[in-house]
Structures are given as C-alpha cells and as structure tokens.
Amino acid sequence: ETVHLADYAPVPVTVTHLDVSFQLDPKATRVSSRLTCKRQGPGEMVLNGEGLKTLSVTLDGVPLDADRHTLGDRTLTLHDAPDEFLLETVVEIAPADNKALSGLYMSNGMYCTQCEAEGFRRITWMLDRPDVMATYDVAIDSDLPVLLSNGNERAAGVWHDPWPKPTYLFALVAGDLVATSDSFTTMEGKDVALNVWVRPGDEDRTAYALDALKRSMAWDEEVYGRAYDLSVFNIVAVDDFNMGAMENKGLNVFNSRYVLASPETATDADYANIERIVAHEYFHNWTGNRITCRDWFQLCLKEGLTVFRDEQFSQDQRGYAVQRIGDVMNLRARQFREDAGPLAHPVRPESFVEINNFYTATVYEKGAEVIGMLRTLIGAEAWDQGVALYFERHDGEACTIEDWLAVFEEAAERDLTQFKLWYSQAGTPRVRVTEHFSDGLYRIDLAQSVPPTPGQPDKQPMVIPLAFGLLDREGNEIRPTEVRELTTAGDSLTFDLAEKPVLSILRGFSAPVILEFDRPDADRLTLLAHDTDAFSRWEAGRVLAKDRLMRAISEDAEFDAGWLDAVATLAQDDNAEPAFRALALALPSEDDLAQSLHEAGIVPDPDRIHLTRRAAQMAVAERLANALPDLRAAMATPGAYSPAAEDAGKRALSASLLKLQTMRDGGAAARRVYDTADNMTDRMAAFACLLDVGDPDVAAQFEADWSHDRLVMDKWFMAQVAHATPVDAVGVAERLTKRADFDPSNPNRFRALIGGLTTGNPAGFHRADGSGYAFVTDWLLRLDPSNPQTAARMSTAFDSWRRYDADRQALVREQLDRMAAADPSRDLAEMVARMRAA
Ligand code: ARG
Ligand code: ZN
C-alpha cells in the first residue's frame, strides 16, 4: 500500500468534463454524476470510490454488464472502455455521519466539502488524482437558502466552472448563511463579486477577512501580474475543519478561526493569521489551481511556492524584518524539529502510505525556503523572468518540480542539478564557520554536512547561499551584504584587512541551515547592537540567550550581568521597533532548548529546562525592575483598536513586559489589564499571566464572559493547560475533557486541549511518570476511528521521543506500541510505524 514517485504513470482514460447533481440529505444524499471520458492510451480505467453506496452504473446510457466492469470496495474498473464515452453513476452517501471531515460532511447544520487530497472519492466515483483536470457543471437540490459550488452561478444552485481543475479543488457548500459582500475590479477590468459567508450572528466579524482578500488580489496583480479569473470569489467559514483553509476554485472554505475576527474576540496573532491565510488561499488560484501538481509527490510545487508568496505578502503588509524573524522562528520550531527526528522527509517525498501525513512543515515551510534560496541564487530579475515563463508555459497543466526548475534554468542560464538536492535530501544542513586572522589576512573557513535521516544515510553537499557582511570592532559596516555560494564540503573566503572584523553571516536567514560558529561574546554583542541586518541582530541576541540557558541548565551557570545588560538595553531601545524588541525579549522555547541540548550530547530534563527558563525570565525581570511600568506605559495604544502592525507591535512588547512584571508583582498589574482590557490581545496576555501566578478566579471569570463563543473558548481551554504547572498539567487537561463543551469531534477544540499540553506545556507532557504520554495516547486512540487525519497529525507530539532519557523513552515506546496494536487507521498507523522505527 506504499505509493512511490517512481511509479507514476498517466491514466489510460481521462475525464474532461463532469456533470454532477446533488440531492442533499443528511443521511442519504444522492449524487448523480456523468463523466465525459476520453481514452489517451491502452489499459483499464480504474475509478476511485470510498464508502459509496452504488445505486447504478451506466456507459453511454446502458447499464454495464457484469463482465465489462468490476465493482470493488474502493475501485470501479472498466475492462474494455471505448475511446470516448459517458459514464454515469448514482451513489448515496451520509454527510451527517462523516466525522472524518473529508469528502461531503456537515458542520453545525451546514453542508460543506474538503476534497484535498483524496476526499472526492468519498463523494462519487471518479479518477481522484490531480493530473485529471476537468470542467464541471454542478446542480444542488436542497431547501437550504444558500447553495454554492465552484465557478460562476448560472441559476439558483446551478454552477459552471469553466476552468479545468482536478477533483481536489471541487467544493460544495449549502446552508443557512449570510454574506458580507464587496467587489474588486481586476487590472483586466473585470468586476468580481466578493462574499464572505458565515452563520447568522457572525457577520460583524468578517470585515478583516474581506479587507485582507482585497489587498491580496491587488498585491498579486502588482507583484506577480496575476489577475482573478471568475466573476465571483466566495469564502465560507466552517467550524469543523481539519486544517486551516482550502483553496477550492472560486470557493475557498476556511476554518472559522481564520475568518472571524473582532477586537473583542480575536488577538493580533489571529488577525495576522487571517491576513496570511486569506492571502495564501487566494494566491493558490494561480499557484495550485491554474497550474496544479501532476501527482501528490509534487505537493511542494504549489505549497512551497504559495507559502513563499504569502510570506512575501506579509512582509510587504507588516514589515520585512519582523515578519522574517517570525517565519524563521516558526520554521525552526516545527520544521527543524521534524527534520531532526524519525519523521524527517525530503521537501519532495519519494513514497508515502497516506498523503495527508505529508502536509508538513517540511513540504510547506522548508519548501518556501528552498524557493527563497532559488531567488537569492539567481537574482530578482531572473526570478521574475522565470516565474513569468512558468505561468505562460504551464497555465492549465499539472506539473512537476522538473517543470518548475526548467524555467529558471532557462531564465538564469544556470544548471540547477545540484540545487535540486534541496528537494530530495532530507535533514537540516550544518554549516561550521571558523575564523582566522593574522598579518592582515582574515580568513573564513566554511564546512557543510547534512546529517543522516530515515532512508538516507549518506548525503551529498548542497548549494548553500550565504549572505554575509563585515563590521569593524566599533560596529560600523565595512562590507555590505553579498552572497557567497557554498557548493562543496569545505571552502574558504579571505580578505585583506588591518584588524579582525566582526562577521555577520546568514543574514536574513539566507538558507535553512544550522550554523555552528563558536565565537567571542563580544562579537555577538557588537552584532546585537549594531548590525545593519535586523535578522542577524535578533539572531545574535538569540544565540547569546541560548548559550546562557544551555550553560545554566547543564552547568548551573549564573546569568551574567553582561548579557542581562544587553537584553535590558534592547528592551529599552526606542530606536528599535516595539515588535522587534518583543522578539528580542523572547527566550528560546523549552522545545528548542531540549533539541539543542540533545544535539550537544546532553540528555534534556524537561523540568529543569522549564525551571531554568523561568529563572532566566526572573533575572531579566529583576534587571529591568522598576523600569517595567514606565516601559509598558510607553507602549499604550490609545484610541480604537487597530489590528495594523504598528499597534500590534506595541501590544506584543507590552505583553512581554507584563509577563516580566507579573514575576515581580504577583499579578497585580496583570489583574488591572485583565479587568480593563478592551481587546482580546491584551486580555489574553493578562489571562496567561494570571494563570501563571495561580489566580483562583480568572478562569471562571473568563468562562462567564465567553462561554457562548466557541473560538474564544478554544483559547480558554488551551491557555489553562499550557499555563498549568508541569505537575498539574495532565490533571487540568483531564478535568477539562470531562466538560460538556469538550467536543473532541471539533478539531479546533481537540487541538486546543491536547496541543495545549503537547506543545504548550512540554514539562507537563513529559512528566516522568508517563501520565502525559498515556493521556495523549488515550485521546488519539479515541479520535482515530472517526477522524484519522487529525489523530495522525497530533501524534507528531511523540516525534522527539528519542531525545529523552531511557525511562521516558520506554514510557513513550509503550504508548507507540499500544497505538500500533490498536488496529489504527492507515493515517495513524503510518505515523506510528515511522516513529517506532527510530
Ligand atoms: N491546500 C490547503 C492549503 O494549503 C491545505 C489542505 C490540506 N488538506 C488535507 N486534508 N491534507 O491551505
Ligand atoms: Zn496551501
């Protein structure tokens, strides 16, 4: 049941058009479809179906004889299909019973679909693969007032999509919905109706998503010359959704948490996510829909590129430096972790059992970094030419990474064979830097290596673009940024200089690598204070902090005044943006420290990491001490709440400072903020602080105010688990699961609670008695039969188990064995098998 990239073959018979009609019913929806089929080579036509009650199959209007077809459990095989024919099927499905949230399902009384990657086969018989592209006519029969599908509406509930698309982009929505509407005129002069559809009562929370959509449309025209191509663009918010959102042609379906926002209910982070995800799904219209993937191994072709584009968009909307630092933090937290463990896989995997297990940080975020490197290596001009060529040459096609790279080989007149290793070699490359200075000669030695990963013991050297500059001892830049390519295992750079400079390397995080660079603190302090590259400044501070924390954990080292002074100076530096200062104040996460200790050959102790990190925060709080209230007052954002980056940055710094202040005043300031906040960003910051100090009332107060609001209550569930003491965390989580409003079939609620423990409270999850592991396993096994996708995804909590001590490893192994023995879904079975093999 493993699928291999090497086995790709085109279908012998394809489908060019679908006529599908739906008679909606919760328990018995009837789907009648007519496929226009066309032979393109010899062989049998094998259609996909899953859980369908097949009522009839006819070919050119004639019921199929038994010897002309085989109706299997998951396949319908036509033995001697003619060159051109119409295949008609009628099936029955039960959307109300579909708790996997894949295919056609119901969420809060509305019908909706999720077809990526292989959900269409749960709706009707079809060639459910991305290289089969067809036009669609869809008719929806239902009493519900709003009936939506892809394309343009011809009559009530009758839709036509003129753009050929694969099945995974099909969508249908039906329900009692209300729209907030607007319009956009494209650069080609086409008027597009824009609608954001939500349940009645939510319409006052749609403005920001709609605004983000218009900005995305304008940006894609301006930056990539891409205009929208239908007369309507619909977004629908759905409460039960396995992922963030889905780019169905002309009908994007969103997890409601990434649509609905008001100042009272959404945080700045929610607003930023809404902006980014609305843009991401919109940008897919060209990178994904007009040009799609030949097969699922090419997933990064659309996802890496679209993440790259949404990151560029967010940089333009919110400021380059802060956005870039945030994206790098996210990459390191999720992708580097993935790359370092049993689930490591290439950006373009070569085999899989269940494709849904490969919607990963590696495919998405590392995929985006690979594209960023490509742009750096060939330059902005060749990049623009190559992308334009890609759109021109491949519009309407289902493509591969080879197609993608070929346009840049042409545009840049450069061979990309070695660069392509970024798509096939898993693991995070290490770049070791050593400096030498004597007699006016400064030399940098560079050495690269890529660690072994599952199935890939030996690696070849990669092309690594290293952006660097040089500063003098006083911090003046003496050589501006240039990019050198490291293409061999080792290389050196030399410069004639009177004194040893301060090297600023990996500026802007020019490659997704781990830098190994032992250097004097003085150099790092110079970079932190003076570097012209904001990422590199922030990075210098992060390395200093990490070094302090690692030594405090492993050798009981004290937090030295030099470091604390540098942190305090930056926190108070009015020349730096507040958002940047907030990022600079953030200490490396507990998970990051655990991984780094492990790589340094030290077995991480989760409790010790937790306590040491708190001690470091306390040391920073004491250093800033009486300056904290004034610093925080200076970050006030008077007037009406604005989600824009400037105010959000002030609130972010204010929240960091409030956390420090809470360590000194026991929560007095946080209590005042909580009681007076007029927005959810400040309120959540204060809520977290009050939970940290064990405030006995705040959880009940929050609940009294917000029990009616599902999205806000997700925050409540998560925060209580994440901010419980490590000793209490599992107990708190367990108690919360007993509440009537803990509905595990809602993925947001499940992720809030379980993720609150596994990622929000690592010391609680890794309790030495194994209770965290057992608790999470119990819930994964409970969810798996109904929703394998989310269960499998959440199982990644265990992917770092090999870092820990023998006792903890034995406890995790017990749980992995328990899952393997429980006859899990294909999704969960694949994940568990990969993690057990470590
Ligand atoms: N293509 C969607 C996005 O990037 C993700 C949908 C993935 N869904 C899934 N079931 N694997 O926004
Ligand atoms: Zn995407």
From TrEMBL:
GO molecular function, one term: alanyl aminopeptidase activity
InterPro entries cross-referenced by the UniProt entry: Aminopeptidase_N-like_N, Aminopeptidase_N-like_N_sf, PepN_Ig-like_sf, Peptidase_M1, Peptidase_M1_dom, Peptidase_M1_pepN, Peptidase_M1_pepN_C, Peptidase_M1_pepN_C_sf
Cofactor: Zn(2+)
Domain Peptidase M1 alanyl aminopeptidase Ig-like fold: 427-517
GO biological process: proteolysis
Domain Aminopeptidase N-like N-terminal: 101-155
Any matching Pfam family: Peptidase_M1
Keywords: Aminopeptidase, Hydrolase, Metal-binding, Metalloprotease, Protease, Zinc
Keyword Protease: yes
PANTHER family per UniProt: PUROMYCIN-SENSITIVE AMINOPEPTIDASE
Name of this chain's protein: Aminopeptidase N
Phylogenetic lineage: Bacteria, Pseudomonadati, Pseudomonadota, Alphaproteobacteria, Rhodobacterales
Reaction equations catalysed: Release of an N-terminal amino acid, Xaa-|-Yaa- from a peptide, amide or arylamide. Xaa is preferably Ala, but may be most amino acids including Pro (slow action). When a terminal hydrophobic residue is followed by a prolyl residue, the two may be released as an intact Xaa-Pro dipeptide
Peptidase M1 alanyl aminopeptidase C-terminal domain: residues covered: 521-835
